[in-house]
Task: inverse folding
């Protein structure tokens, strides 16, 4: 059984807030690496697993017929047409080092389309929320702590502040570093904060003119991507130069220029 996207967003927000409290409690006790995944620098902490366990329990208790895709655990099949997409801590390396840029990301898909998303800036207790609603201007709502979000105004490429990130694979990092070096002289500057979900929310709130990164997964960008789109951005997934998906997101105005820039500087596969 499906539910209005606003209700799914409310459930995601309450769950994310509870997970953030748990994450901060783990941080207060000290954070250590519990395991690694794709490489020795792709880390998992006990807080990642505990937070995902909590999120799974809360979502599936409220909606037991839903499906769930999470970064840290096995997929759960369901029959309702709703699938939750969960990243318990996006920005785990930041969390490990005590850098204040990590988030809980929860999105809800209905029949394959993301219709609700929450990115909770867990370190700073800021809540980015988006949901689809055909009766609202722009087809939905995108807010930060209840205030409407909108992308930054038009700017020439040379005056755009962009964000990117780097793979956990040394080989892919070499490709990304070369592309970034070609990009840097062409734009205002480049930032690398370490959380895909929050970078997309920064695009949504007008703090960035664009974001591009190869190697991110659906759980990294599902919620933040919806929020950005509802705030006036576009998002595409392209073949990356390193052999995996490249996410490109920026304001709708001038978006084609951003995609062209990604190609000309070597972020995309020829």
Result:
């Amino acid at each position: 059984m499906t539910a209005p996207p606003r209700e799914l967003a409310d459930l995601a927000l309450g769950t994310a807030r509870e997970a953030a409290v748990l994450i901060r409690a783990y941080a207060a006790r000290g954070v250590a690496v519990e395991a690694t995944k794709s490489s020795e620098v792709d880390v998992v902490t006990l807080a990642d697993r505990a937070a995902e366990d909590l999120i799974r329990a809360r979502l599936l208790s409220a909606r037991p017929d839903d499906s769930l895709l999470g970064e840290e655990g096995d997929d759960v099949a369901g029959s309702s047409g709703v699938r939750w997409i969960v990243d318990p801590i996006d920005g785990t390396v930041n969390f490990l080092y005590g850098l204040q840029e990590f988030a809980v990301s929860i999105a809800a898909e209905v029949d394959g389309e993301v219709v609700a998303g929450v990115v909770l800036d867990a370190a700073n207790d800021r809540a980015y929320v988006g949901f689809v609603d055909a009766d609202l201007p722009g087809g939905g709502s995108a807010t930060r702590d209840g205030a409407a979000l909108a992308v930054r105004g038009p700017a020439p490429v040379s005056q755009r502040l962009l964000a990117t990130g780097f793979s956990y694979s040394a080989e892919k990092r070499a490709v990304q570093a070369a592309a970034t070096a070609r990009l840097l002289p062409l734009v205002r500057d480049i930032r690398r904060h370490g959380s895909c979900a929050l970078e997309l929310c920064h695009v949504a709130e007008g703090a960035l003119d664009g974001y591009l990164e190869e190697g991110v997964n659906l759980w990294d960008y599902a919620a933040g991507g919806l929020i950005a789109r509802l705030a006036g951005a576009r998002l595409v997934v392209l073949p990356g130069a390193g052999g995996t998906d490249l996410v490109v997101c920026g304001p709708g105005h001038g978006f084609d220029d951003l995609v062209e820039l990604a190609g000309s500087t070597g972020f995309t596969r020829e």
In short: The CA atoms of residues 169 and 209 lie 27 Å apart. The chain has two domains: 5-148, 157-264.
